[in-house]
Amino acid sequence: MAITDRGDIKPNETYTFKGKLVRHEGKLTLMDADITEEPPETTIAEIKHTYDFDPKREEVAVAGRLVAWRPMGKAIFGHIQDLLGKLQIYIRKDLVGEEKFKFIKEFVDLGDIVGVKGKLFRTNTGELTVEVEDLQLLSKCLHPLPEKWHGIKDVEVRYRQRYLDLIANPQARQIFLMRSRLLAEIRRFMVDSGFFEVETPTLQPIASGANARPFVTHHNYLDMDLYLRIAPELYLKRLIVGGYPKVFEIGKNFRNEGVDTTHNPEFTMMEFYAAYWDYNDLMKFTEKLFQHLIDTVLEGKSEVTFEGHRINLKPPFRVVRYFDLLKEKTGKDKDFFLRAPIEELRKFATELGVKKAETLTRAKLIDKIFEKVGEPELIQPTFVIDFPKILSPLAKEHREDPDLVERFELIIGQMEIGNAYTELNDPKDQYQRFLEQLKEKQAGDDEAMEMDTDFIRALEYGLPPTGGEGIGIDRLAMLLAGVNSIREVILFPAMRPEEKEKGEG
RNA sequence: GAGCCGGUAGCUCAGUCGGUAGAGCAACGGCCUUUUAAGCCGUGGGUCCCGGGUUCGACUCCCGGCCGGCUCACCA
User: Fold this and answer.
1) To the nearest 10°, the Cα dihedral for A238, A241, A247, A251?
2) Pairwise CA distance, residues A298 & A173, whole Å
3) C or N: which end of chain A has fewer Cβ atoms within 10 Å?
4) Spatial CB neighbours of A291, under 8 Å, sequence gap ≥ 6
5) How confident is the model at residue A5 (pLDDT cuts 50, 70, 90)?
């Protein structure tokens, strides 16, 4: 290691880049000079775990980011950290040798990635520690780390530089570890329940399957506009036509709408479809899924705190009919909402505080009124069932009431977590519903659905009786993590660019 | 898109009723071989978000803008 002899390196200089303090890049040359050839043999969590079972002065080789550094003359204490744990290291001059010790003091900084080799022991205070025999500088950190006990609080920095959030804030690591676990457990549960995981197009010639404004893009070679999908629904039902008994897809949907604490322009959904199920089967299945998530992700704890409410996720969930809830809150019955003159309904909506009611269609009015009076009550998990048909162009007519469909939404903490129905599998009826959507579109609802004629054709080949459901993964993660912003559970949430490039025309 | 609030050192924050700024941590120079928010002595560090206006003088007041947060509107 001749590097310390080089006179041209001034290890402790700093410079500024765009006004930010950065350590001298002279240190960068060290990265190539002192990289170990051997990857670490183990992780910090593994070391701690095995030591608990079999405590002995074992030789370990492990790497991590230096997050604490306490030099004390001829010895140094520090902590290295990886995603899952933190481990103390103890460097003694007489053990690593004079030259190495000098190198460490001069060139190793807080924030660097280092690899250490040494024996495990416990200090006087009982903390598991590596007595370092050798330390390798694996990568330099040119910026000072955030403050060690407040971490990064500035939410803007936390979202833009998520890597810093993950380094400095243990709560952030916890949330995203939980999200990984959530995805893994959902997949495990679905596969164990006989579902096939599939992937369907995110670039679609027709954006359908939900009511939302799409993002538009263009394919140069085919010279056609394409939409980023707002939902995978119609493709997944085509797969049921094709013979899949049960399918699920976990993936991104894209909706060109506002950004707030419960909406990100791209978000993760799971949709699943099961032949020969109806919405009653879906409710039972959803409850089983939640029980599985309580047993695994939440480690048996069924209560979460969300927006100041204690919410119990343990099934079974409350069930309430859509129009029963509306009647309870407004005193008006189904016939009023579905058959009263539209002017009367608009007047009623305006009284309830619905804005621009005079421009809305009946379907929109009912939807708005429900959001105004119904949803605020729904804190504990609730299946709201039997939606009006005019709000649900892809759902099958209710077996007992032609005004309704066999549909439910699962609402928790005032958030729509799931949406499900017995699927409409009558091609003629589906065609009519699409036509009605086109009418809605002409009446000013730019989120009404598009006609998809190939989907109609698929239904003509025979869609078995089918139940289908979508679950919003981000919102579910918010609930399980107990955080009130969707940005807290999305690693890189949508943000405006930090600074505009200068000199652009 | 509208309203309210915010942007000061790398980080967390204080402050200036208008006279160009401080603390702790981090950094840098010393001392220190069981510390862990290590300790002790010393040092440096700021386009106070950007642009314009008022003023002898603006980080502070006024106007405009950028970015973010919250609430509302739209959506899931």
Assistant:
1) 0
2) 16
3) C
4) A314, A315
5) very low
Does at least one atom of strand B sit less than 7 Å from the CB of A502?
A: no
A47 within 8 A of A60, measured Cβ to Cβ: yes
**b/e code A296-307 from CB counts within 10 Å (16+ = b):** bbbeeeeebebe
pLDDT digits (tens, 9 = 90+) for A137-174: 888 888 888 988 889 999 999 999 999 999 999 999 99
Strands A128-139, A59-72: pairing is unpaired
* ipTM of this predicted structure: 0.91
Only one residue has tokens 């958030």, namely A415
Closest residue to B13 (CA to C1') is A150
For A439, other C-beta atoms within 10 Å of its C-beta total 12
Q: A494: exposed, middle or buried (C-beta count within 10 Å: 0-12, 13-18, 19+)?
A: middle
Q: Beta strands of A285-406 (E only): which ranges?
A: 303-306, 309-312, 318-321, 382-385
> For A157 and B67, how far is CA from C1' in angstroms?
11
- Kindly state the tokens that stand for A234: 């119609």
User: Closest residue to B25 by CA to C1' distance?
Assistant: A147
Q: CA A154, C1' B40: Å apart?
A: 33
d(CA A175, CA A166): 10
Q: Note whether A403 and A389 are within 8 A (CB).
A: yes
